From TrEMBL:
InterPro entries according to UniProt: NAD(P)-bd_dom_sf (IPR036291), ODC_Mu_crystall (IPR003462), ODC_N (IPR023401)
Family: Belongs to the ornithine cyclodeaminase/mu-crystallin family.
Species name: Metabacillus arenae
Record protein name field: Ornithine cyclodeaminase family protein
GO molecular function: oxidoreductase activity
Pfam family, one: OCD_Mu_crystall
Highest classification ranks of the organism: Bacteria, Bacillati, Bacillota, Bacilli, Bacillales
GO CC, alphabetical: cytoplasm
SUPFAM superfamilies, sorted: NAD(P)-binding Rossmann-fold domains
Any one Gene Ontology BP term: carboxylic acid metabolic process
Length: 329
């Protein structure tokens, strides 16, 4: 078995690599070539935390994977990682468990890549301003992906804890030393979205972050932070104003996306207003953006076959580069 840590994965795998793999995985799913059982969530109520177990299989690459992710928000108070995970990769031909790798970084990468693919198909081609609401671990991958598909000139950062926004600003300057754009920390979410062509929602908020009526015409929103039925980053006004609401998977969105579930339960909105899944747009079954002025909203809660897809890709790269540690049982 090959053991791959975060440092090794970072050296092997770029956001561009990840976006290509994620788009390909969405195609495989639409072709019926993936198997993804419902993920299992084990709550840790005393810590207001949970551990997720997510299995999947992808036939064209012939690998299955099991990702285990723990999300412990209180860790941040002690300087520990909030999100920690591993992926076990299994050969679909022999059943051998061929790799065990850090999943924290890969989760950030594939979640960002999912939004990046959606941005590619749904955001305006001339999008220049990106607002980021919620500057935790996931936000960095989101920004990387958006910058991979659009020429962003200005980034607006909003976080309820101002210091975290300032910290992300420093990380971005370090990550993109040659980028000529500007970064502004905003103290008001409505002000941040007012001028934004792309809005990234990457918080764990249980209440909407902004008033949907503040959205600019032609804006595109990526909502990835709320992944449970009670969590909500966008309000019903955002849903009303969106000409196209696209999800990563219909099943996952209607089971876990509080952004959609809360207004449905309140009788303010209905699931028939969902335009479709991102895989339908990728495969050409449905159109992406068709009007400059329309507002588009991509809601993702995550799906396990994306993890298996990126894990097997990293594994193949590790074999080719002869890196990683070998562990024999």
């Amino acid at each position: 078995m090959l053991l791959l840590n975060e440092r090794t994965i970072r050296n092997l795998y770029t956001m561009e690599d990840c976006m290509a793999d994620v788009e390909k995985a969405f195609r495989y799913e639409k072709e019926g070539k993936t198997v993804t059982p419902v993920r299992l969530s084990v709550p840790h109520e005393k810590e207001q935390a949970e551990t997720l177990y997510m299995p999947s299989y992808i036939e064209p690459v012939n690998y299955s994977g099991l990702k285990v992710v723990s999300i412990f928000p209180n860790n941040a108070k002690e300087g520990r990682k909030v999100l920690q995970g591993i992926i076990l990769l299994t050969d679909g031909l022999t059943g051998e468990h061929v790799a065990l790798m850090d999943a924290s970084y890969l989760t950030i990468m594939r979640t960002g890549a999912s939004s990046g693919v959606a941005t590619k198909y749904l955001a305006r081609e001339n999008a220049k301003v990106c607002a980021v609401l919620g500057t935790g671990a996931q936000s960095l991958g989101q920004i990387q992906a958006v910058m991979a598909v659009r020429e962003i000139e200005h980034i607006l950062l909003f976080n309820r804890t101002l210091e975290k926004a300032e910290g992300l600003k420093e990380k971005l300057h370090a990550l993109f030393p040659n980028w000529k754009g500007t970064i502004t920390v905003q103290q008001d979410a409505n002000a941040a979205v007012k001028d934004a062509d792309i809005v990234i929602c990457s918080s764990k908020s249980s209440t909407p972050l902004f008033d949907g009526r503040s959205l600019k015409r032609g804006a595109h929103i990526n909502g990835i932070g709320s992944y449970q039925s009670h969590m909500q980053e966008v309000d019903v006004q955002t849903l009303y104003k969106s000409g196209k609401i696209v999800v990563d998977t219909m099943e996952g969105a209607l089971h876990e996306a509080g952004d959609l579930i809360v207004p449905i339960e309140q009788g303010l909105w209905n699931a028939q207003s969902i335009y479709g899944e991102i895989s339908e747009i990728i495969t050409g079954q449905k159109e992406g953006r068709t009007e400059q002025e329309e507002i588009t909203f991509y809601k993702a809660v995550g799906i396990a076959y994306l993890d298996t897809m990126v894990a097997q890709s990293v594994y193949q790269r590790a074999l080719a580069a002869d890196v990683g540690e070998t562990f024999n049982f």
